Amino acid sequence: VTTAQFLALCENRHPVTGLRLTPRTKTNRRPGYDCTFNAPKSLTLLYEYTRDARLLTAFENAVQATMRDVEQAMRTRVRRQESNTDRPTGNLVYARFTDFAARPVANGSCDPHLHAHCFVVNATFDPVEQRWKAGEFAPILHDRGYFEALFHARFAQAVRTLGYDTLRVGKFWEVPGISEALRAKFSQRTQLIEATAQALGITDP
Fold first, then answer.
1. pTM here?
2. pLDDT < 50: residue spans in the chain
3. Which end of the chain is more exposed for a tag (fewer CB within 10 A), N or C?
4. At a CB cut-off of 8 Å and minimum separation 6, what does 49 contact?
């Protein structure tokens, strides 16, 4: 994806013709949603140390496969002829960006953090009405935990196929041999968030 194409889609314009994509462009419209996929910290550190390209391929393949599932769940609203329903469309438009670092902390340093941003544009093609319309994202947002679990199941299986062990840790997993102390050392933002929450008395996730 090019910068011009991406910005056009965010502005509800066709990335090639420049014409308006969906019927309405409200001033307060939501341009899209950022679906983020995060590799376990131990896997990130393993990749940073080994530069095993197969790990990166496994990560990106798991992201791609999960986004295909998200795409199948895509819907649009139907409001014609007094209808008030949603219609499955099974298609979406998104741009994927693979990143290798977390946001910097106060001192400007960035920890390694393999993750992907899949920015889904607020547009889907309605095959019945034969036009682009805004997407109905509520069902996808409701099931985001399911899609997250799918991604991790696929990624962990692929990592095991490459000959690495995985160990279940809570809802997710880590690579044994990468110590908790080492993972914590390269998790400065998590420590900052938790410390801030504690200072403010925030206990709700």
1. 0.89
2. none
3. C
4. none
Comparing CA positions, the residue from 108, 23, 110, 96 lying closest to residue 61 is 96
First to last CA, the chain: 34
State how far the alpha carbon of 198 is from the alpha carbons of 151, 186, 189, in Å.
Answer: 30, 20, 14
The H-or-E segment that residue 4 falls in is helix 3-10
The residues, ordered by sequence, that sit 6+ positions from 176 with a Cβ below 8 Å of its Cβ are 165, 166, 167
Question: What would the pLDDT profile of 159-189 be if each residue is shown by its tens digit?
Answer: 999 999 999 998 899 999 999 899 988 888 8
**CA 62, 14, 79, 127 torsion-angle sign:** negative
The residues with which 77 forms a beta bridge, in sequence order, are 86
Question: 145-151 — which CB contacts under 8 Å span 24+ positions?
Answer: 147/35, 147/66, 147/69, 147/70, 148/37, 150/66, 150/69, 151/37, 151/62, 151/63, 151/66
Among 174, 193, 177, 203, smallest CA distance to 44 is for: 174
| Helical H segments across 26-179, by residue range | 41-50, 53-72, 138-142, 144-161
**CB neighbourhood size of 124 (10 A):** 25
- Rounded to whole angstroms, the Cα distance separating 9 from 152 reads 29
Q: What are the φ and ψ backbone dihedral angles of 166, each rounded to 5 degrees?
A: -130, 150
- Interatomic CA distance for residues 191 and 170, integer angstroms: 18
